[in-house]
Amino acid sequence: MKTYHMDHLDRLESQSIYILREAYREFKSLCMLWSIGKDSTVMLWLARKAFFGHVPIPLVHIDTRYKIPEMIEYRDRVAIEWNLNMIYGENRDAIEEKRTFPDGNTDRITCCRHLKSEALKKTLSGQWPRFRMDHSLRKYVPDESRTPYTGVIAGVRADEEGSRSKERYFSPRDSENSWDVGDQPPEFWNQFKTDFAPGTHVRIHPLLDWTELNVWEYIGRENIPLVSLYFNRGNGTRYRSLGCFPCTTPIESEAATVSEIIAELADGRLSSVAERSGRAQDREDGGGLETLRRDGYM
Does the structural domain 8-211+286-294 have CATH classification 3.40.50.620? Predict the structure, then answer.
């Protein structure tokens, strides 16, 4: 009789699928944030596995209008190919009134608050318009539903930057999405608190214990399609973390394939370089994201 031994990726996959199914069982008004980056795309892949090819959870993207165009093209192509319930929201007033960093009217942190934190909060609450992919028309139309999402699945990893290491798998926020770092439930021996008071906003983090290397190993094993910005395309650079183009820069790297990125991470070449070192808003936030994340930033 053949014995099957779980390796480290199997264990991570199993835990993440368990968390996704628990979230779906416990939270009735649930959505999943999809930033189009590698982590949330792995999370989306895991959701497809958890629910046997169908994703019964709406995917929400916050569009700042400053994302790298290839990211938006990839989002919409995958949404159609995988038949996703794809929704986006935005801070249309701030964009039209040019209250942004690229327009020279705010600093980066304030711009993130306007285009990401505030847009996320008002999109989740249903206070601002949402736009849903109409698969028959293959374009976005106004979403008729304004039901608040109070359970929010996000692709946060504890090793990505300091404030995220303080998260829990099931992390409560208040009704304004504010995060009290010091008031988080204990999580021991796979026992998770899911019975929160009515009105509590809960973030769910299925990838919390994954590392950057784990993510890339899993992408390689599963052959997960990614936006090509992560790979060197002949100019000796690639993006390690994706965001808005005015505030995100690539790293020097010759890695053009998943296996080459895995080797680059495994041999320590990037050990002294923070994963989000190309994200300028992190530097303005004192080298981390805690200020923004306390206000609801992902």
Answer: yes
